[in-house]
Amino acid sequence: MTAHEIDYQIYGEEMQYVEIELDPQEGVIAEAGGFMMMDDGIQMDTIFGDGSQKDKGLMGKLFGAGKRLLTGESLFMTAFHNQWHDKRRVSFASPYPGKIIPLDLTEYGEKFICQKDAFLCAAKGVSIGIEFSRKLGRGLFGGEGFIMQKLEGDGMAFVHAGGTTAKKILQPGEKLKVDTGCIIGFSKDVNYDIEFVGGIKNTIFGGEGLFFATLTGPGIVYIQSLPFSRLANRVLALAPRGGGSSKGEGSILGGIGDLLDGDNNF
Predict the structure, then answer these.
(1) What pLDDT, in 10s, does the model give residues 119-143?
(2) Is 0.90 surpassed by the pTM of this model?
């Protein structure tokens, strides 16, 4: 194996965290903001890229860093190495309610494609890159699914998702239609494309967007019930205007009730 062989345990239900056990000199890499706690004896370092050997040389590293900049990701990642003489533990937490999914990349042909904000952490040696769409339709209308991350290597990786997760095993030619934001990730042989919803009423009044993501087998697909973008939009839509509280919230009258109460001055 080129990646470090790590052990792990996932704790919790709605707000999970993963505890990773490191043997001496073993390491794990993570995006900024996922760290929760660690034992004494673990050294934390900020590294350029993911620390793998995939992008060799200065130009290779700069090219890989440039792709991460295009997607809004940081140029740097955080590496945690066990410098102690026995086993040490480090933990990473999911940033919002949902599930943490462990992925043994050897079971996915050493490559897994996921939403660009889904990656949490991985064994040192796993490569975290960017997967750009080569299809015009997907690029123009793919939304959250246009630019994705690819996890490559022969080690363990961990991704997080919102709400409840579903694992679908697609047979050759079997197609699944999904909201683009609800995709967590899929194995490398799954064909990902965009399909127009169709129908004038669906287009104007449907409220579900104009396009589906279509995932065609063979392969494995992970779906989330509550993508963070949908949660954020719902919260913003219900937030009171101007920072004040709304007495009409949850009532039949709604904002009209505020007018009758005299809360709004004209």
Answers:
(1) 999 999 998 888 876 554 444 444 5
(2) no
Rounded average pLDDT over 240-255: 52
> Each residue of 195-233: b (16+ CB within 10 Å) or e?
eeeeeeeeeeeeeeeebbbebbbebbbbbbebbbebeee
In CATH terms, the fold of domain 7-239 is: Double-stranded beta-helix (3.60.160)
- pLDDT at position 48: 76
pLDDT, residue 179, reads: 87
Answer yes or no: is pLDDT of 89 > 70.
yes
Q: Is the pLDDT of residue 251 over 90?
A: no
CB atoms within 10 A of CB 4: 21
Contact 76, 47 (CB under 8 A): yes
